[in-house]
Amino acid sequence: MDIPQSPYVYMRIEKMGLFGRKNINESVKEFRDDKNARLIDVRDPAEFKAGHLNMALNVPVDKIESMPSRVHDKETTLYLYCATGSRARKAASKLKKLGYKNVKAIGGIEKWEGRIVK
Q: pTM of the entire structure?
C-alpha cells in the first residue's frame, strides 16, 4: 500500500499519536527526572489558578515572548501544556523561533491522571 506523500497526512498521523508521541503523564515523569527542566502552563491566569500541575510556571501563550526574562538559558528543556494541547503547540513554535532548543508541547491537562494544585 502506498502512503500519500502529503505533509498534511503526516501531520494528521502525528496528531493521532501514531509516531510514538508521549502523553502528558509520561512527559511529566520525564520532566521530574530532569532537574534543569521547566514545566510551563501556557493557559491564562484564571485557568492556572483554577488548577495546575505541581511545579508549573504560568506563562500564558500570549505572553510567551517574555520567556527569556524567566528562563535565560535557551538550552533548558521546556515542557509546555495547556488545556487540550493546541496552545502548547502554538507556544512551542514561538519559543523555537526565539531560539529555545529543547521545547516539548506535552498536551493538555484534561488528560492528566495525577494531582492538581489549586
A: 0.82
